[in-house]
Design goal:
- The structure holds two protein chains of two kinds.
- Chain A is of the alpha+beta class.
- Chain A contains ten helices and 21 strands.
- Chain A folds into three domains: about 180 residues, Rossmann fold (3-Layer(aba) Sandwich); about 55 residues; about 120 residues, abc- transporter (atp binding component) like domain (Coagulation Factor XIII, Chain A, domain 1).
- In chain A, about 25% of the residues lie in helices and about 35% in strands.
- By secondary structure, chain B is an all-alpha fold.
- Chain B has one domain.
- In chain B, strands 1-2 form a two-stranded antiparallel sheet.
- In chain B, strand 1 and strand 2 form a beta hairpin.
- In chain B, helix 1 packs across helix 5, helix 3 runs parallel beside helix 6 and helix 5 packs antiparallel against helix 6.
- The chains are: A alpha+beta, B mainly alpha.
- Chains A and B meet through helix 3 and helix 5 of A and helix 1 and helix 4 of B.
Chain lengths: ~400, ~280
């Protein structure tokens, strides 16, 4: 583990530690049959049947004062639970969390707004829920309304607000609480672009003022750009802590684990007298793999079988990111069209530097004739593979575009 | 644990949440706050008709020599009915306070008992307004009760404590067993008739009802609401100092109930956010 973990004992209680998490475990009950009726409770002798589920297991680390700290991990890794424990919404079963200074949580914007009350009334209400006194809200009121960009709508009941106005006001109140430690859970993407910019400014103001921000996010790009340090949680255990760039690289490497080849799941149609039986992904050394790497050589190999000679075949394939985004589609028509194929064989498509951004992709493959009028075989999701981190390291989107940088 | 400092910081929140309840209650209704008065008046009118006219209840038993006949009955009724409505509304509101604010409880930290407190306080404000109107009506018919005012207010404070205690207990139990809300609906009706509100308690002493070895009157006396209502009757209607035994029983039971309610609430509170 890194120096931060080792520092726990030394710096405990020091001012340079914003949040001290020590041996925190949190258990949830997963009810098989919920005891929400007395009858059920009595019949079962008062005890509901439930499985215990440890959302956090003996988690210990320190979050340093100042700067932004990210929590990453897959769904169910316990990062939101940890954040709620810090915010005192959930109480850990064992261990302690001590916070240096005032803490505020941005878990849901506008939680506690009363629909029938005006924006103004809700600012006071929400402010006091978040721990501000009336005087403090008076002093900040204009700033809050200004930041939310509500103008004359401030005296309208919030139920008439657009969803954007609603979250903007919620965000504005929460951020103006002036906490020493701000907990943020996936709510950064609120409002339009100009509001986003204001939020970013506010966050950097907070950082400059030496405040601490703790961010839970699925967006690795957010964590990479915003955070000075990050912790990686897996199944309720801290797997690693450190520099976000390095951590995310390890995380991406690790979480896209060995994939069992997915047969089926896709659809298939075509004449059937020639078929693409198997699609393989080959790594730089020509070995079959389900894990390719950004920037490394890769080859897709399509094994075919024909029942009769097929004249002028064309093989095409497409790549879809698993969220459905169409990444690319290419075919062999313009490059090479053999006169005929017969029996068993394979077609290779070799790539010098795989330009795909790390993630998971599906291969769609089609075997057609040169005129594209006749489809012998068309298979979607013929292969699912992962792309792991490589060079360049810091990429976004679907493709890592190749090019050369120069400063003039 | 909730620290004292947190409570001090939460006083303002309690005030704001109470205001939220009050403002939300009659928002967008044309009559607004008048409903707070119309409800008990309508009830009083109904009970007066049913028990005063149809059944010819003998109100002489209530023991005010200055007030007689049909006009006295609704006033007598209201002296008990208004506090009862407060208890009933406060308890029902408390039960909904946690479940209804689940969103808040799951997303923001603050001492959760404040939600119950705010609900009960908002009904207490209604009670004060209603009692003020009743007090004026009583004065108008010549019932000079004003010298009891401080004691009436003290009684209301302890009644509020009592309701908060019951409210905390039932609200947190309702999170774990949603049957509570249905059960309470029935229980409150039973409780209403088991409290001398529409009839004077003296009506009971003339009979020898008993459940086995227990005299029914003893059971009635165990009900703290009997004592609260009696104390209000005595000061507002009969214009006597309260029976001090009844008064102390009301005070002690409200403190005990509040302590018990808070204890159970605190016991079950840690897993509140995940159970909601």
């Amino acid at each position: 583990m890194t120096a931060v973990l080792g520092a726990v004992a030394v710096h405990r209680g020091d001012a340079d530690i914003a949040v001290h998490v020590e041996n925190v475990s949190k258990k949830f009950r997963l009810y098989k049959e919920r005891n929400q009726s007395l009858k059920a409770a009595m019949m079962r002798g008062g005890r509901a049947k439930y499985d215990e589920f440890w959302a956090l297991k003996d988690v210990s680390f320190d979050i340093p004062t100042g700067g932004t700290f990210g929590l990453i991990g897959q769904n169910g890794s316990g990062k939101s639970t940890l954040l709620k424990c810090m915010a005192k919404i959930l109480r850990p079963d064992t261990g302690t969390i001590s916070v240096n200074g005032k803490i505020s949580a941005l878990l849901e914007l506008g939680a506690g707004f009363h629909q029938e009350l005006s924006g103004r009334e809700n600012v006071y209400l929400n402010g006091s829920i978040l721990g501000l006194s009336r005087k403090q809200i008076d002093a900040k009121f204009d700033e809050i309304v200004d930041f939310a960009g509500l103008g004359e709508f401030i005296d309208t009941p919030v139920k008439n607000y657009s969803s954007g106005m609603y979250v903007r006001l919620g965000f504005s109140v929460a951020i103006n609480v002036d906490p020493d430690v701000l907990l943020v859970d996936e709510v950064l993407a609120v409002g339009d672009e100009s509001f986003q910019r204001k939020c970013d400014e506010k966050f950097s103001d907070m950082r400059e003022a030496g405040k601490t921000i703790v961010v839970v996010s699925h967006s690795l790009a957010t964590v990479r750009t915003m955070c000075d340090q990050a912790a990686w949680l897996e199944h309720g255990v801290v797997k690693d802590i450190g520099n976000p760039g390095m951590l995310i690289e390890k995380y991406v490497e690790d979480t896209h684990t060995e994939r069992v080849s997915t047969e089926g799941g896709g659809s298939r149609w075509g004449a059937g007298n020639a078929r693409v039986e198997q699609v393989e992904a080959l790594d730089a050394d020509g070995r079959p793999t389900l894990r390719l790497h950004l920037g490394a050589p890769a080859t897709f190999r399509f094994h075919y079988v024909t029942d009769e000679p097929i004249r002028k075949p064309v093989l095409g394939f497409g790549l879809h990111r698993i969220d459905g985004a169409h990444a690319t589609g290419v075919n062999s028509r313009e490059t090479i069209v053999p006169d005929q194929i017969d029996g068993k064989g394979y077609v290779d498509f070799a790539i010098d530097k795989l330009p795909l951004v790390p993630g998971s992709y599906d291969v769609t493959v089609a075997l057609v004739d040169e005129s594209n009028l006749h489809t012998y075989d068309y298979r979607t999701k013929a292969l699912r593979f992962d792309v792991g981190a490589g060079r360049p390291r810091d990429v976004e989107g679907v493709f890592a575009i190749d090019g050369t940088w120069s400063f003039g | 644990m909730t620290t004292l400092a947190e409570y001090a910081g939460s006083r303002e929140l309690l005030g704001n949440l109470t205001q939220r309840e009050l403002r939300g209650k009659y928002k967008r209704s044309a009559l607004g706050w008048a409903w707070s008065l119309i409800n008990p008046l309508a009830l009083a009118a109904m009970f007066t008709f049913v028990f005063g006219v149809v059944f010819q209840s003998k109100l002489t038993a209530a023991g005010n020599s200055d007030l007689h006949g049909i006009a006295a009955f609704p006033l007598y009724l209201l002296c008990g009915l208004l506090p009862w409505n407060f208890v009933s509304n406060g308890i029902n509101g408390s039960i909904g306070a946690l479940v209804g604010n689940a969103n808040l409880v799951k997303k923001v930290y603050f001492p959760r008992e404040i939600l119950i407190g705010a609900n009960v306080l908002s009904w207490a404000v209604s009670l004060l307004i209603e009692m003020a109107v009743l007090g004026i009506a009583l004065l108008a018919v010549g019932n000079m009760w004003l010298k009891f005012l401080p004691l009436v207010l003290i009684t209301i404070v302890f009644l509020t404590l009592f309701v908060t205690g019951v409210g905390m207990l039932l609200a947190i139990l309702n999170v774990y067993f949603r049957d509570v809300q249905h059960f309470v609906g029935i229980f409150l009706q039973l409780w209403f008739y088991a409290t001398p509100i529409i009839y004077p308690i003296t009506l009971l002493s003339g009979h020898d009802w008993s459940l086995g070895p227990v005299h029914l009157l003893t059971l009635f006396k165990l009900n703290p609401m009997t004592d609260f209502v009696e104390v209000f009757h005595q000061m507002l209607f009969r214009l006597t100092w309260p029976d001090w035994t009844e008064f102390s029983y009301a005070i002690v039971s409200s403190v005990v109930v509040f302590a018990f309610g808070l204890f159970v609430f605190k016991k079950l509170e840690p897993r509140l956010a995940e159970e909601l």
